[in-house]
Specification:
Low-confidence stretches of chain A: none
Keywords (chain A): 4Fe-4S, Iron, Iron-sulfur, Metal-binding, Oxidoreductase, Periplasm, Selenocysteine, Signal
Radius of gyration of chain B: 19 Å
Largest interface: A-B, 48 and 42 residues
CATH architecture of the largest domain in chain A: 3-Layer(aba) Sandwich
Distance between the termini of chain B: 26 Å
Strand content of chain A: 15-25%
Structural class of chain B: alpha+beta
Mean pLDDT of chain B: 86
CATH architecture of chain B: 2-Layer Sandwich
Subcellular location (chain A): Periplasm
Order of helices and strands of chain B: EEHEEHEEHEEHHEHEEHHHH
Structural class of chain A: alpha/beta
CATH class of the largest domain in chain A: Alpha Beta
Cofactor (chain A): [4Fe-4S] cluster
Oligomer: heterodimer
Number of domains of chain B: 1
Family (chain A): Belongs to the prokaryotic molybdopterin-containing oxidoreductase family.
Number of helices of chain A: 21
CATH class of chain B: Alpha Beta
Radius of gyration of chain A: 27 Å
Helix content of chain A: 10-25%
Protein name (chain A): Formate dehydrogenase-N subunit alpha
Distance between the termini of chain A: 38 Å
Chain lengths: 814, 334
């Protein structure tokens, strides 16, 4: 989230699209009800289903899953056509005025540079025109035909209300009503918030869904302001923390990149990470990359990391592929290339797409280790449960080790919420039986592995033997110790560069935050963006002061928000070019003539002069990007792409299947279905009664939503002879499930490209262990497709068929 | 400690409880009605009337209230099955005192779908039909703050409360043959806490406080709904039962029946109103016959039949006028 949960109360308009906040985030959703009750805010829901969020909305519009870009580009077009643009903001704070290179183009659904063989773009034409001074060329009058604004205008011109109706199935009048409401938020004193979740991310074009809304928010002037922003609602209490701490195969901590095999040494690695400003005087904060990188390496290998050995750069793994994400790991398992898999807090058998492929992959492992507080289907993948898990147990040789872990309520540490707040928590209960903290388990594995490397050597034992492991009890690092390491400390006395006689931080003391980190080996920090969470002032994540001066929703002394306890990102953009708040009633910051003052930690150097330094300090341009340059693999502007399995052909290019650079494996192509064979558009989702695959273990939750079901319209039910509460079979090219049918008015057939499209909804909370009835999940059916940029599996748009059926075999009670 | 220094009833459900144990602030002296008891002494004080306000327009149907109700009351409904709807369990039961009822309603005025989600449960009528119908002395009591409570050890399981209730709420346990329903968390209210459902409600669609405050709160909500085009938004506090201590804010207050059959003008059957003593049984039989085909028809199929032994026991109890000490609301049933 750019903003905080508590900030949503400040909004005038909530758009829930690509998510179902009331259902999946009921506690956070209270801030929407606050905005509605106290500000008269309106709520718009755009979703294939009339959801629980829709039930409390002011306006609901149906949309075919996977067609959000068309809808959003059309809203951008509507705003441009009707002059509903926050012009001052757009001209000053976005790259609207930047001139794009000659050679950039878009035709037939594809941007310039597409290579069909490689299924990839040559992105060299997706960039600015640079002057001899090295800076990007701009035309502040927006007259240049190749300035970003004019390219954007031309790009979205095709996205008319008629096209929305044709592609999305959204009635034209509904679209126009919503576009009109959104356009009103171009006023500097009206803001809109976007709340989205997996309904946008879990598509092969997920990043572009989000881009489209972010661009809309930028031209409305809604980024960096109270009640505005792009607010990603994270699906677990700590999934934000997962990405922050780099638990992705292509990331180190704090969004530093894992090196690739082409980056053979530190110098090469850093050469492409200089981040010089692209406009005069801009901050380009990533210029500090080396300070964060070296401090990270010092945190990893301590004294072994020296300037001479590139801070142990050669210890870091080098990627030979873009990422070893879950899809690739299970593809490799199926190829017999993976021996063992440690599955910590994950239930792949239900969570990853194409369950048949997941199960086949697990069966080819030599060993599987699961770490989980609860029994998981993954740990029991070898057990036959009739139709619910129809495997030949005798044929599976994988050895499975189940390591019971503590659950969150039995542990202590911090959880990072969607609003980037690191909230310390304390144990409320004693773990049962043999359950152990994950840190204990990982430490025990590490210590034993290190001992083996010490005794037996091996090809390259150094990274393991030299790993910094300075904990009070090496067998179980304490959460505070780990948090302090993440914050970072001075390794030698840090002297003031302006006055070397002055010591800023004594050796051994915690740094106050990442501004004190250095790239000369004198500091260490496990995750730079978290620095400040546990400094000499103490554990700032444990703070519980809920005072909120002037009720801004900032709550500055409640826990710690990264970065630097900043509650709203890009908050400098809440004020105009002269530093005056756009909306005085919603002030976040203002320029007092000498410095930035206000309710939040300024997202700009405190004394940076307002007209000199632009608000988007992480970008080399200093401004935000309507045109993303080559940052995304699938285009600098969002363009309509159909799902890989779609009921209609792409109107921009009927031959184009899915995202032209979406992540697919050769072996999966044969398993894509067509709309002739599989006529219905399926989507997956969560229900408020359950949390993922956990709460089916809880008898209360199990009683409140006991049994797997699918939802379909009354029209389709009539057509197929399906009665509510009866058994149906739903199948795709990849698998088949049986479910109870919920026949509902909340799903209605859509007319897309002249065709009736029936939507089938498949919730995901059931399996074959737990207190609830045995059931299936959508992953038995969903395709093995990854997002083009980040490899997130697409679960939200695929094709199925449905028929009346009978109960599955194998006993329905778990 | 009593709440002598603070208000006599909690004003909100959102505050956290004090750490130290508290004595119950609901006692014998607070009873204003007691079933089958003609000589109840007048209450020693008047508590401030309380109410739970359920704003249907803010409710997201998350069932946190159902979950909190199960947890607090230590009931455990069975893991059932899906029968094609979102209601689970499928009806109120002796183990499920509150239930979200979901109605898909197409508004004929706008032709758009509305998903009406109403939390069903005891309305805590100011004029409680259950209590008036109850033949077992002290099985149903009413406190001066408005809470209508079932004292299970006095219950004989005859099911007359079910017949007397205009909202079809009480359910007789097949295990212990006693009647169960929402207590408005009398055991929590007695120690300064609001009901568990209101405390758990993430959107504060359920709020709790004095009845006066709740009516005021409702006014603001109704004004907001009217500004959003719900011209018939209003408060449901039906006069036919003397008003209720559980009230609804409805977007379509002119049509309460669209909310899963919320009665338009609930009232106690005149037979229940008028009978006294043994005539209750005659009246009950007459009412049973009259009620065939009526709104509450469904109840009779489910209610326990009253056996001859139970009838006799009921009559014996009525005649004895058994004086059982008032129930301490903090006691949990076994």
């Amino acid at each position: 989230m750019t903003n905080a949960w508590t900030d949503i109360k400040n909004t005038d308009l909530v758009v829930v699209m690509g998510g179902n906040a009331a259902e999946a985030h009921p506690c956070g959703f209270k801030w929407v009800t606050e905005a509605k009750a106290h500000r008269g805010a309106k709520l718009i829901v755009v979703d294939p289903r009339y959801t629980r969020t829709a039930s409390v909305s002011d306006v609901y519009a149906p949309i075919r899953q996977g067609s959000d870009i068309t809808f959003l580009n059309a809203v951008i077009n509507y705003c441009i056509q009707n002059d509903k643009v926050q012009w001052e903001y757009t001209k000053a704070y976005t790259n609207a005025a930047f001139i794009v290179k000659e050679g950039f183009g878009y035709a037939d659904g594809l941007f310039s540079g597409y290579d069909e063989e490689k299924r990839d773009y040559d992105r060299s034409s997706w960039d600015y025109e640079f002057g001899e001074d090295g800076f990007a060329k701009v035309d502040p009058t927006l007259q240049h035909p190749r300035c970003v604004w004019n390219l954007l205008k031309a790009h979205v011109a095709a996205y008319t209300p008629e096209l929305v109706e044709r592609i999305c199935g959204t009635p034209r009048q509904k679209f126009l009503q919503i576009a009109g409401m959104i356009a009103e938020c171009s006023s500097p004193t009206k803001t809109m918030t976007s709340m989205y979740a997996l309904g946008w991310t879990q598509h092969s074009h997920g990043a572009q869904n989000i881009r489209a809304m972010a661009m809309l928010q930028l031209i409305l002037g809604n980024i960096g302001v109270r009640g505005g922003g792009m607010n990603a609602l994270r699906g677990h209490s700590n999934i934000q923390g997962l990405t922050d701490l780099g638990l992705m195969s292509h990331l180190l901590t704090g969004y530093l990149n894992m090196p690739t095999e082409k980056e053979v040494d530190y110098k090469t690695y850093m050469a492409s990470r200089q981040f010089r400003p692209l406009r005069p005087g801009q901050t380009s904060y990533w210029q500090n990359y080396s300070k964060f990188m070296v401090s990270f390496q010092k945190a990893m290998w301590g004294d072994a990391a020296t300037a001479e050995n590139d801070w142990c750069y050669h210890y870091l793994s080098k990627l030979d592929v873009p990422a070893y994400d879950i899809l690739r790991m299970f593809e490799l398992m199926n190829q017999g290339k993976v021996n063992g898999y440690i599955c910590q807090g994950f239930n792949p058998l239900l969570a990853f797409p194409n369950r048949g492929k997941v199960a086949a992959g697990l069966a080819r492992l030599k060993f599987l280790i699961t770490m989980d507080p609860l029994e998981t289907e993954t740990a029991r993948f070898w057990e036959n449960h009739g139709d619910f898990n129809d495997v030949d147990t005798k044929a599976i040789q994988t050895e499975v080790f189940q390591l019971p872990t503590v659950c969150f309520a039995e542990d202590q540490g911090s959880l990072t919420n969607s609003g980037r707040w690191l909230q310390w928590f304390w144990p409320a209960a004693t773990p049962p039986g043999e359950a152990k903290a994950d840190t204990w388990i990982m430490a025990q594995i590490f210590l034993r592995m290190r001992e083996l490397y010490r005794k037996e050597g091996g090809a390259f034992p150094d990274p393991i033997l030299n790993l910094s492991w300075q904990y009070h009890n090496p067998g179980e690092p304490e959460p505070e110790e780990l948090a302090k390491e993440i914050n970072g400390r001075a390794l030698t006395d840090l002297r003031d560069p302006a006055d070397p006689s002055r010591i800023l931080v004594e050796a051994g003391k915690q740094v106050v935050n990442f501004s004190q980190l250095r790239d000369d080996g004198s500091t260490m920090s496990g995750c730079w963006i978290y620095s400040g969470c546990f400094n000499e002032a103490g554990n700032n994540m444990a703070r519980r002061d809920n005072h909120d001066p002037d009720n801004t929703g900032a709550h500055p002394n409640w826990t710690f928000a990264w970065p630097l306890n900043r509650r709203t990102l890009y908050n400098r953009a809440s004020a105009d070019l002269d530093g005056k708040p756009w909306d005085p009633s919603r002030k976040l910051l203002e320029w007092d003539g000498a410095k930035w003052v206000g309710y939040d930690v300024p997202d700009i150097a405190p004394t940076a002069k307002p007209r000199d330094v632009m608000p988007f300090i992480m970008n080399q341009e200093g401004v935000s990007r309507l045109f993303a340059r080559g940052m995304l693999r699938d285009g600098p502007f969002p363009a309509h792409m159909e799902p890989f399995e779609s009921p209609i052909a792409n109107p921009f290019n009927p031959k184009m299947r899915g995202n032209p650079v979406g992540r697919i494996f050769e072996s999966d192509v044969a398993q894509f279905g067509t709309s002739e064979e599989f006529p219905y558009a399926a989507t997956s989702y969560r229900l408020t009664e359950h949390f993922h695959y956990w709460t089916k273990h809880n008898r209360v939750n199990a009683a409140l939503q006991p049994e797997f079901f699918v939802e379909l319209s009354e029209e389709l039910a009539r057509e197929k002879g399906i009665a509510g509460g009866s058994w149906v079979r739903v199948w795709s090219k990849r698998g088949s499930v049986r479910a109870k049918a919920v026949v509902t008015k909340r799903i209605r057939p859509l007319i897309c490209d002249g065709k009736t499209v029936h939507v089938i909804g498949i919730p995901l909370h059931w399996g074959f262990v737990g207190a609830a009835r045995k059931g299936f999940g959508p992953n038995s059916l969903s395709p093995f497709v990854g997002e083009a940029n980040i490899e997130t599996p697409g679960y939200k748009a695929f094709l199925v068929n449905i028929e009346p059926s009978t109960a599955p075999r194998g006993g329905v009670v778990a | 400690m009593s709440m002598a220094n603070g208000p006599d009833s909690p004003r909100t459900a959102v505050s956290n409880p004090p750490v130290q144990p508290m004595a119950s602030n609901l006692g014998a002296g607070d009873l204003i009605r007691r079933s089958a008891t003609s000589d109840l002494p007048p209450p020693t004080r008047q508590l401030t009337p309380v109410a739970k306000l359920i704003d249907v327009s803010k409710c997201i149907g998350c069932k946190a209230c159902q979950s909190a109700c199960i947890e607090w009351n230590d009931t455990l409904p069975a893991v059932g099955e899906n029968v094609g709807v979102y209601e689970n369990p499928h009806d109120l039961t002796e183990n499920m005192f509150t239930l979200m009822r979901f109605t898909e309603w197409v508004n004929p005025a706008t032709d758009s779908l509305e998903w009406l989600i109403r939390k069903d449960g005891c309305m805590h009528c100011a004029d409680p039909g259950c209590l008036k119908a109850c033949p077992a002395p002290g099985a149903i009591v009413q406190y001066s703050n408005g809470i209508v409570d079932f004292i299970h050890e006095n219950c004989i399981g005859c099911g007359y409360c079910v017949k007397g209730c205009p909202f079809n709420i009480p359910r007789i346990s097949k295990a212990d043959h006693r009647s169960y329903k929402c207590t408005l968390c009398s055991d929590r209210v007695a120690v300064g806490q609001g009901p568990a459902c209101a405390k758990a409600c993430p959107t504060q669609a359920i709020v709790f406080g004095t009845k006066e405050d709740m009516k005021k709160h409702a006014e603001g909500r109704i004004a907001d709904l009217k500004s959003r085009g719900y011209s018939q938004a209003g408060l449901y506090d039906p006069p036919g039962v003397g008003g209720t201590h559980v009230m609804y804010v409805l977007h379509h207050a002119d049509k309460p029946q669209i909310y899963a059959g919320l009665p338009e003008n609930p009232s106690i059957s005149p037979l229940v109103q008028s009978w006294k003593g043994v005539t209750k049984y005659v009246g009950m039989a007459a009412m049973s016959m009259l009620a065939v085909g009526s709104v509450i028809h469904g109840v009779f199929g489910r209610a326990n039949r009253v056996s001859r032994e139970e009838e006799e026991e009921a009559e014996r109890l009525v005649e004895q006028g058994d004086e059982t000490p008032p129930h301490d609301p903090r006691e949990r049933r076994p």
